[in-house]
Amino acid sequence: MQRPIVGFGIDEEGAPLAFLSCGHAQHVRHNPPFFNRPWVLTEAGRAAMLGQALNCVRCDHLELPDRFIARDRTPAFTEVSLPPRLRQGHKTSVGVWARVVVVAGSLRYRVASLSIDKTLSPLEAANIPPEVGFRLEPLGEVHFYLDVYWTEHSQLAGLLAAQER
Ligand SMILES: [Zn+2]
Question: What is the CA radius of gyration of the chain?
Fold first, then answer.
């Protein structure tokens, strides 16, 4: 899935990283002839790449980013109290992940843009990536809740602040 670059940093070994709007980081090495990214070497070059999208495979795999912490939990929902928007199609905000936790019963979880169609149960939870349409459909009686994750990570916090201005 394509995700815009919201900032840059380095890993523990000093290799350059791009931070993406989803909360994942990706190496952006300049290591010719294999990786040709001379722009990463200068501040002006990096600044010009802000907002450019990179393909994020970790989003495709629904991997919760590092440093994301569960900060909120929805009420427990049942097949009756499930909010219609979760059934009909919903997206979380930029930088906000969620995890579907089924306490009893089962729930169908679909993300059409990623060709994901899973049955969730007390044995199988799943993550919801930011800004991607998903649908939840009770398969009979079900009890579940969503844990909501975000990060205080400075790059993403800066992006969120910029959007609020
Ligand atoms: Zn990602």
Answer: 18
Residues 18-45 have pLDDT tens digits of: 999 999 999 999 999 999 999 999 999 9
Q: How far is the CA of 5 from the centre of ligand 1 (A)?
A: 10
Cα 17 to ligand 1 centroid, rounded to whole Å: 13
Do 52 and 81 reside in the same domain of the chain?
Answer: no
Residue 161 in any domain: the answer is: no
**Of 40, 60, 80, the domain-final residue:** 60
* DSSP H/E element including 120: strand 116-120
Distance from Cα 76 to the centre of ligand 1, integer Å: 27
- CA of 21 relative to ligand 1 center, distance in Å: 7
pLDDT one-digit tens code per residue, 84-105: 999 999 999 999 999 999 999 9
For residue 52, the CA-to-ligand 1 centroid distance in Å is 14
Residue 22, domain member (yes or no): yes
Number of folded domains in the chain? 2
Q: What's the domain range around 54?
A: 2-60
Mean pLDDT of 149-158: 69
Please state, for a pLDDT cut of 70, what percent of the chain lies above it. Answer: 92
CA 4 – CA 95 distance, rounded (Å): 12
User: 84: helix, coil or strand?
Assistant: helix
